[in-house]
Design a protein that fits this description.
By secondary structure, the chain is α/β, with parallel strands linked by helices. It is built from twelve helices and six strands. It has two domains: about 1-90, 434 Repressor (Amino-terminal Domain), CATH 1.10.260; about 95-275, Endonuclease, Chain A (2-Layer Sandwich), CATH 3.30.870. About 50% of the residues lie in helices and about 15% in strands. A hairpin with a 6-residue loop joins β4 (about 220) and β5 (about 230-235). α1 (about 10-25) runs antiparallel to α5 and α4 (about 55-65) runs antiparallel to α5. The longest helix has 18 residues, at about 10-25. This is Transcriptional regulator with XRE-family HTH domain. InterPro entries: Cro/C1-type_HTH, DUF5753, Lambda_DNA-bd_dom_sf.
């Protein structure tokens, strides 16, 4: 399995094969195993045919029943495969440039972001993060994407968190990602984050129809010693840019966008008004 250790599909097949092999070695039918686990024979059949997404609890239950090595420490054979599936899924769902960006972001002392359509990942609550993802993706892939978003937010818990400035287009607040309940939670989170001394969240209202307001989103990272970097993405294409001319123009653009946006106090008041519409 070494060559397939980064392929979640191959790992799911491996899980199914190991389940079938272990069950047959124990001389159990699918019905007998299902009865022991409190599920249906059809469920076991689907697991062995790779037709079902493997949950962590299923992996733990199988380890407990078969007493696989490490089962009593939640580190049995099936749980280890499940963990590998999740890790491989996370590796696959990250765009190459984004994976590099994430590493750079963790080292940044300053982050400036223009968000044209959605709440930026660093400010998303879990429900919002799930709401913008494709529900047809395997559960472990979705979990991996959400986990990456939540892990990135750990930079705000550093002893010296980065100075961050976000400019959000009004559409990011008006688009009901995840439904009204999620949007109330998301706006509450934005307001709470805005009140931190190292975070600014400014809103660009629809009424300000200028070339600056209609431009696309981007992120600028600043570091202690290294040169700034710029991250942009469109669809499934992402770029991490270090060109000094591009970065200079992006920095000027960001400053101008901030000048067009509402003030901090106005932005908080605006977000709270939008929140009322979701109640």
């Amino acid at each position: 399995m070494a060559s397939d250790q980064q392929d979640p599909d191959a790992l799911r097949v491996y899980f199914s094969e190991e389940l079938r092999r272990t069950r047959q070695r124990a001389k159990l039918s699918q019905s007998q195993l299902a009865n022991a686990l409190g599920c249906t024979p059809q469920w076991i059949c689907q697991l062995e045919k790779t037709d079902k997404t493997v949950s962590e609890q299923t992996a733990l239950d199988l380890d407990t029943y078969f007493k696989t090595d490490g089962w009593d420490q939640d580190d049995g054979h099936f749980h280890r495969i499940h963990t590998a599936i999740r890790r491989a899924g996370r590796h696959r769902v990250l765009r190459p440039s984004f994976d590099n960006y994430r590493l750079q972001e963790a080292q940044a002392i300053g982050i400036r972001c223009v968000a044209a359509q959605l709440v930026p990942g660093l400010l998303q609550v879990e429900g919002y993060a799930r709401g913008i993802m494709d529900e047809n993706e395997p559960a472990e892939t979705l979990d991996a994407r959400v986990a990456v978003r939540m892990e990135r937010q750990g930079i705000f818990l550093r002893e010296t968190p980065p100075e961050t400035m976000f400019v959000l287009d009004e559409s990011a607040l008006r688009r009901p990602v995840g439904g009204s309940k999620v949007m109330v939670e998301q706006i509450d989170h934005l307001v709470e984050m805005t009140r931190r001394p190292n975070i600014q969240v400014l809103i660009m209202p629809f009424e300000r129809i200028t070339p600056l307001a209609l431009g696309g989103g981007f992120i600028l990272l600043s570091f202690v010693r290294d040169s700034d970097l710029m991250y942009t993405e469109a669809g499934h294409i992402s770029q991490l840019i270090g060109d000094k001319d591009v970065l200079f123009k992006a920095g000027v653009h960001f400053n101008l966008v901030m000048g067009e946006a509402l003030s901090q106090a106005e932005s908080i008041e605006f977000m709270l008004r939008v929140r009322e519409g979701y109640l």
